Amino acid sequence: MTAASGAPVPPSAAPRADGTPQPRRTRAGAVIVGPTRRARYGPGAVIGLPLLAVLLSSFPAAMIERWREGRIAAGADGIAVRLLEPAPVQLLAGALLLWAVVAAWAAIPLVLVHRVVHLDPRTGELSLRTGLRVAQRRALVDVVHAGADPERTGTGTIGFADGADWTIPAAGWDEASFDGMRALQEAAGLPVQPPRASLIAAARAASRLRAQREMAARIAMPWRTEYDADSTAFLAEFDRRRRVLGRKEPARPGDLLPGEPLPEARR
């Protein structure tokens, strides 16, 4: 959720067993379709930027040491000069300084270009918010299609009866962001997409099957229907056939032998 000013109020951490959408909401009750600024900013500010600051801490630490030398040459001997004398303290202070500067710099474009949609269930109004302003307002009854890619950087789209479209970047950023789109679909009477986790799991399973079929084709290994649901059985047979090709196990009828061309190459 977010406050009326836009500050998010997080949804319940535990997903509902029945798959009911659990989007973030404003304190006024509006559904947030897409990620909030805090959701987008948090992982980078808390995880990515601190790691970067630690790796580059030697550069601001060198600047701190030059500052100390200048203060000492000027006859100053304050508490900051004494505290920053040890090299580890300089590295820590440099990392913190670099993190603060880069974090503040990264927040500026996010605030200015962030794009999200609010759905007010009481009035049936959609508002497209870009940066700090409301760019457009539309009625929920005008929505004819809506959907989002569940991947983290997936895009969401909302289409209206007059042909206009709204695009929501990173609509699949997390469960709550994606559930905002699902809640909109439900409110508009449109087909509701399955939960984000199940869609991603299905996509990964399909990708795994494509990769395994390609692996099997490289060694002329017939594909069995049981491999669709049992990856362990596929890997066991694939490993056996690799050992045959490596002359570490006797071949069975139908196995591709070492040095033998693939069936396609024979033709």
TrEMBL record:
| Transmembrane domains' residue ranges | 45-64, 91-113
Q: Cite the entry's keywords alphabetically.
A: Membrane, Transmembrane, Transmembrane helix
Residue ranges, annotated region (Disordered): 1-29, 246-267
- Name of the molecule in the record: PH domain-containing protein
Organism from which the protein derives? Brachybacterium equifaecis
